[in-house]
């Protein structure tokens, strides 16, 4: 019997798929599983199929990737792909410094756009991009992957259920040791450590922290940050030493609209003594919770021990055992894939994506003001971003 399910095929130009994020999270963990499962089924019965078109600079790498994953089309001519009327969506995971221009060109050509963060290197560019996207009437979305992670989904549920009472503070700890590259090769690209190439942990992470904070507690009203370059020399992909001109650690305090104080350390120069590479703790009058990428534990007021400070005695309280696991109560898939599925649904149904270019611009703004706070040694209030 012929398949009578209404179908829609979305052709997605994917630029930057030879890179870490573009390849692993977006192609292999998101678009290919959606393609290989026969597409995404919407509640109204429509099936969305996806057709990736790989875009990049290196013919050999693209051809190899296309062959490995059974992808029919690839191109090194990004402008031609963007001009191709058969392409529905342009996706960008290039290095940050090339993003804003490519996205603006795609939007002007009438493409829907989905992109890695940050959308631009400056707030001015990010807002301009948001304006162009709004005028073009396309669906535009930015990766807010952390909000889709099981740990943060559970944490958000606790917020929604009023578990915390009045939320007092949030503490975040993010980071791990990124090898300098002289002995063992570095596990992150060298451009991340060069300011002139769009690198730096503030630019990289503060846009994440902005949407994480907005998603959990509300708007950020002020920032006080201190960025540092702890490791001044690193070795690149060719084994050559280079001066690390970008910050590799940032210590930030964020004042929230609900009165809570958030404090997040981000560092590529720390060693991990945590359960996960990122952890957030929320403390409230009625309870506290700690969430990582996957796990979340909570402690209610009525289960809170009453420790007494006495450095003369060994610790007898098993503090870590006094927290209860927060269950998922649902199948929580890869965060990038979940957001892709939401974005593809938005494109087909015409619904705006939850995390659009203005949200992206607020992330860029927090990074920009965080760097200014550090350079000027002062607290900075955050003005509202408008088109
Ligand atoms: N959402 C997240 O958690 C997350 C994590 C890491 C990185 N990112 C973002 O993803 C983007 C890509 O980061 P990545 O770690 O995959 O980087 P990467 O260096 O591994 O990949 C960069 C990609 O851009 C391409 N590129 C285009 N022009 C280039 C140029 N002039 N120099 C070098 N590469 C060029 C490369 O070929 C490659 O495909 C960045 O914007 C970064 O901020 C997001």
From TrEMBL:
Residues annotated as domain Gfo/Idh/MocA-like oxidoreductase N-terminal: 54-142
SUPFAM superfamilies: Glyceraldehyde-3-phosphate dehydrogenase-like, C-terminal domain (SSF55347), NAD(P)-binding Rossmann-fold domains (SSF51735)
InterPro entries referenced in this protein's UniProt entry, alphabetically: Gfo/Idh/MocA-like_OxRdtase_N (IPR000683), GFO_IDH_MocA-like_dom (IPR055170), NAD(P)-bd_dom_sf (IPR036291)
Pfam families linked: GFO_IDH_MocA, GFO_IDH_MocA_C3
All residue ranges annotated as the GFO/IDH/MocA-like oxidoreductase domain in the record: 154-289
UniProt protein name: Gfo/Idh/MocA family protein
């Amino acid at each position: 019997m012929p398949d009578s399910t209404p179908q829609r095929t979305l052709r997605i130009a994917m630029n930057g798929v030879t890179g870490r994020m573009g390849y692993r999270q977006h192609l292999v963990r998101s678009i290919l599983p959606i393609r290989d499962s026969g597409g995404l089924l919407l509640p109204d019965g429509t099936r969305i199929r996806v057709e990736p078109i790989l875009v990049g600079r290196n013919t050999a790498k693209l051809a190899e990737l296309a062959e490995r994953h059974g992808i029919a089309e690839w191109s090194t001519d990004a402008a031609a792909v963007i001009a191709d009327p058969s392409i529905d969506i342009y996706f960008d995971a290039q290095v940050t410094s090339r993003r804003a221009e490519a996205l603006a060109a795609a939007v002007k050509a009438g493409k829907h756009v989905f992109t890695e963060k940050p959308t631009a290197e400056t707030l001015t560019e990010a807002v301009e991009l948001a304006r162009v996207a709004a005028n073009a009437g396309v669906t535009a979305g930015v990766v807010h992957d952390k909000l889709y992670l099981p740990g943060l989904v559970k944490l958000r549920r606790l917020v929604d259920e009023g578990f915390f009472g009045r939320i007092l503070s949030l503490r975040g700890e993010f980071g791990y040791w990124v090898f300098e590259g002289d002995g063992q090769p570095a596990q992150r690209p060298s451009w991340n450590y060069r300011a002139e190439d769009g690198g730096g942990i503030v630019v990289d992470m503060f846009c994440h922290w902005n949407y994480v904070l907005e998603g959990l507690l509300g708007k950020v009203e002020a920032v006080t940050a201190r960025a540092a370059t702890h490791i001044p020399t690193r070795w690149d992909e060719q084994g050559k030493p280079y001066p690390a001109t970008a910050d590799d650690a940032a210590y930030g305090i964020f004042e929230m609209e609900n009165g809570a104080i958030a404090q997040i350390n981000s560092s590529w120069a720390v060693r991990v003594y945590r359960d996960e590479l990122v952890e957030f703790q929320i403390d409230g009058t009625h309870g506290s919770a700690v969430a990582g990428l996957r796990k979340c534990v909570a402690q209610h007021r009525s289960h809170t021990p009453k420790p007494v400070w006495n450095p003369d005695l060994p610790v007898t309280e098993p503090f870590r055992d006094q927290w209860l696991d927060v269950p998922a109560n649902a199948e929580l898939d890869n965060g990038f894939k979940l957001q892709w599925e939401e974005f593809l649904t938005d494109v087909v149904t015409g619904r705006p994506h939850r995390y659009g270019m203005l949200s992206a611009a607020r992330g860029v703004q927090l990074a920009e003001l965080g760097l200014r706070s550090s350079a000027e040694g002062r607290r900075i209030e955050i003005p509202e971003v408008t088109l």
